[in-house]
Design a protein that fits this description.
Blueprint (H helix, E strand, L loop, with lengths): L6 E2 H4 L18 H17 L10 H7 L13 H10 L67 E2 L3 H11 L2 E8 L9 E2 L6 E15 L2 E7 L11 E5 L3 E5 L1
Parallel strand pairs: 4-7
Antiparallel strand pairs: 1-5, 2-8, 3-5, 3-8, 5-6, 6-7
Helix pairs in contact: 2-3
Length: about 250
């Protein structure tokens, strides 16, 4: 496959609104769930030629997947998230207090390592929401009928070209990488680790790739709202990734 030097899924599929959405995981270590439902929402739209636009619920995945996905707000596994989508399905659900979809997110937004209009986050070890198998009042259809299912889930080898080809053909993927102390304060440009200790893993949605001043990068959407980074997105040095899920 002949791949371009630069690719942005938001421009490739302009009729899929979730591609442009930046969510907020709040004070909960649910990045594994957000990276998954963000990419799933996008891929449902891409696969349907923009006929199906749905915000897949992070709440449903976070609260109902259980041990197969890890520990809820205390961290989880992207692979388990995608498997849950194919086996149990996921309902719709928008941002906190949006009243969009069956199960919108119940954890309020907060400021992640930046000053802004929201209260500061209280770490990422909050209480995991309970698995409530019903939609919020006034939403139809009912919970079971609102489930969206994936036909298959799979990992992409850690090859730049294979990851790019997957995004180019099918839409965004979920990726995970090791976070160092200098990442939370990222603002713009291509991020590369310079100082600080390793502080853990993080999952994000990869929208595309590019080259800036000779430096290749992955274009990523974080789940720390639009006040963080470059309107909620980041350009991460290509060498930074560990295996992806989609």
């Amino acid at each position: 496959m002949d791949l371009p030097d630069n690719f942005d899924a938001r421009e490739a599929w302009p009729n899929c609104p979730t591609l442009k959405e930046v969510r907020d995981q709040g004070s909960c270590g649910s990045c594994w769930a957000f990276g998954a439902v963000e990419a799933i929402s996008d891929r449902v739209c891409v696969h349907s030629n923009a006929k199906v636009n749905v915000e897949v619920s992070a709440e449903d995945l976070l609260s109902c997947c259980g041990m197969e996905c890890g520990m809820g707000c205390n961290g989880g596994y992207p692979s388990g998230a995608w498997k849950f989508w194919t086996e149990k399905g996921l309902v719709s659900g928008g941002l906190y207090d949006s009243h969009i979809g069956c199960r919108p997110y119940s954890i309020p937004p907060c400021e992640h390592h930046v000053n802004g209009s929201r209260p500061a986050c209280k770490g990422e070890e909050g209480e995991t929401p309970k698995c409530v198998k019903q939609c919020e009042t006034g939403y139809a259809p009912d919970y079971r009928k609102d489930k969206h299912f994936g036909s298959d889930s799979y990992s992409v080898p850690s090859s730049q070209d294979e990851i790019k080809a997957e995004i180019y053909k099918n839409g965004p993927v979920e990726g995970a990488f090791l976070v160092y102390e200098d990442f939370p304060t990222y603002k713009t440009g291509v991020y590369r680790h310079v100082t600080g200790e390793e502080i853990g893993g993080h999952a994000i949605k990869i929208l595309g790739w590019g080259v800036e001043d000779g430096t290749p990068y992955w274009l990523c959407a974080n789940s720390w709202n639009t006040d963080w980074g470059d309107n909620g997105t980041a350009m991460l040095l290509v060498l930074f990734f560990i295996p992806l899920e989609n």
